[in-house]
Design brief:
2 domains, globular, 14-3-3 protein binding, TBC1 domain family member 22A, Rab-GAP-TBC_dom, Rab-GAP_TBC_sf, mainly alpha, phosphoprotein
Length: 500
């Protein structure tokens, strides 16, 4: 959100006004990714000939990789993971293979259990050594089921279970068909989270915070304990100098409540009563209801939105702005409550002075956000109209099949993408995912204005299979307006942003 003219955005490779001028979208799992060939199954062949890559594209991808080296918290293992991922795999083939491995494993386990019960003292024979992949040629080892399929009947080759090659570090182990993050070791996750938190604290604890490094570190997510101060810094609300922060907070909070004293009593004046009435109607429609419908929270949101509308007459209040208050308020409230689920936190137990500070901080950070996308909310909302057209052009370039399918069934992008732009996808994903997504948006110089466009395109690519299966206008539109994201978590958002 904060502008940084000297920093060239790594995801934007051309000077064209149209973001779709990029030639390809690189997938997080299988780069490079050609969406026109997405549905084509790979045919078995003794050797897959490699296609020469132009020097320009190699340079682009290497620069992309270096700029997102921490997007998946892999640290120094990124190069080896990317080398391993360079071997193109089709998702359908991978999933089918993984299921066959699981079935074969279950059958072998069932056959071995009676024997183990009868011979408890028998010492198991050592397993044969797994095939070793030379360090200079990183390739995926075939699974057991693939070995059976490729071996002729009666061959004497021993069954070798799929294991990690000794040449790969432990963090580079890939589990096929397992997308649930709970499958990972809880201790490994806690160590990783603790390490990231230490990095943030070291960066934030210095006398002058390096905002460029903070953006890089925040791109792949901000730990909850330091999210509030990180957002305030990335928004440009707090100065980088630690000594200046208390005075800045005090001054800005005092300034906000001066606005309240000066403007808020005019909410019932004839010239402003329509604005206030619309805000009063929209707030109960927000979610999470358990938080928003608390009287103190409702009053806070009414004041924030009304003061912003009065001080920005070019746009005033527009429906959709109200949703953008929630992430800031929730994140800043988390600093002062021990509730694990802040969605249901009892705000009445929070001290009054703390709530006043949270309200003022929310107002100023919301103002910074809206200043960057104000053309989304001026008369006729030209910013949204333009972004929807840019999204249409981008999807046409990166996934022509999806674009053509929508066009054939007369589904117009404005019919579903208007809300994506107006509410910044807040109505499409759970609040926890919105907060994680905003970690990345805040780390981009124009995250809410331009990077959001690429996230919307990634959503369409993510759901391309379901979109192509729908053969009816109503079903297509209903699906696009109600994406199945209710159970998404941080990992799903990381994957979406990782595609970019």
């Amino acid at each position: 959100m904060a502008s940084d003219g000297t920093r060239k955005q790594f995801w934007k490779r051309s000077n064209s006004k149209v973001p779709g001028s990029i030639q390809h979208v690189y997938g997080a799992q299988h780069p490079p990714f050609d969406p026109l060939l997405h549905g084509t199954l790979l045919k078995a062949a003794p050797k897959v000939p490699t296609t020469p890559v132009k020097a320009k594209r190699v340079s682009t991808f290497q620069e992309f990789e270096s700029n997102t080296s921490d997007a998946w918290d892999a640290g120094e293992d990124d190069d080896e993971l990317l080398a391993m991922a360079a071997e193109s795999l089709n998702s359908a083939v991978v999933m089918e293979t993984a299921h066959r491995v699981l079935r074969n494993h279950s059958q072998r386990q069932g056959r071995h259990r009676p024997r183990e019960a009868a011979e408890p003292e028998q010492t198991p024979e050592p397993s044969p050594e797994p095939p070793v992949v030379p360090s200079g040629d990183l390739r995926l080892v075939k699974s057991v089921s693939e070995s059976h399929a490729s071996s002729p009947p009666g061959s004497a080759s021993a069954t070798v279970p799929l294991r990690r090659s000794p040449s790969l570090p432990s963090s580079a182990t890939v589990t096929l068909g397992v997308s649930d993050p709970s499958a990972l070791s809880s201790s490994a996750l806690s160590e990783r989270d603790a390490s990231r938190l230490d990095k943030f604290r070291q960066l934030l604890g210095g006398p002058n915070t390096d905002l460029e490094e903070l953006r890089k570190l925040s791109w792949s997510g901000v730990p909850k304990p330091v999210r509030a101060v990180t957002w305030k810094l990335l928004s440009g609300y707090l100065p980088a100098n630690v000594d200046r922060r208390p005075a800045t907070l005090q001054r800005k909070q005092k300034e906000y409540f001066a606005f309240i004293d000066h403007y808020y009593d005019s909410r019932n004046d004839e010239v402003h009563q329509d604005t206030y009435r619309q805000i009063h109607i929209d707030i109960p429609r927000m979610s999470p209801e358990a938080l928003v419908l608390q009287p103190k929270v409702t009053e806070i949101f009414e004041r924030i939105l009304f003061i912003w509308a009065i001080r920005h007459p070019a746009s005033g209040y527009v429906q959709g702005m109200n949703d953008l208050v929630i992430p800031f308020f929730v994140v800043f409230l988390c600093e002062h409550t021990d509730d694990e689920d802040v969605d249901t936190a009892d705000v009445s137990r929070v001290p009054e002075d703390v709530l006043r500070n949270v309200e003022a901080d929310t107002y100023w950070c919301l103002s910074r956000l809206l200043d960057g996308i104000q053309d989304n909310y001026t008369f006729a909302q030209p910013g949204i109209q333009m972004k929807v057209k840019m999204l249409e052009e981008l999807v046409r370039r990166i996934d022509e099949q999806v674009h053509r399918h929508l066009d054939q069934h007369e589904v117009r992008y404005l019919q579903f993408a208007f809300r994506w732009m107006n509410n910044l996808l807040m109505r499409e994903v759970p609040l926890r995912c919105t907060i994680r997504l905003w970690d990345t948006y805040q780390s981009e110089p124009e995250g809410f204005a331009h990077f959001h466009l690429y996230v919307c395109a990634a959503f369409l690519v993510r759901w391309r299979k379901e979109i192509l299966e729908e053969k009816d206008f109503q079903e297509l539109l209903l699906f696009l307006q109600n994406l199945p994201t209710a159970h998404w978590g941080d990992e799903d958002i990381s994957l979406r942003t990782g595609w970019l």
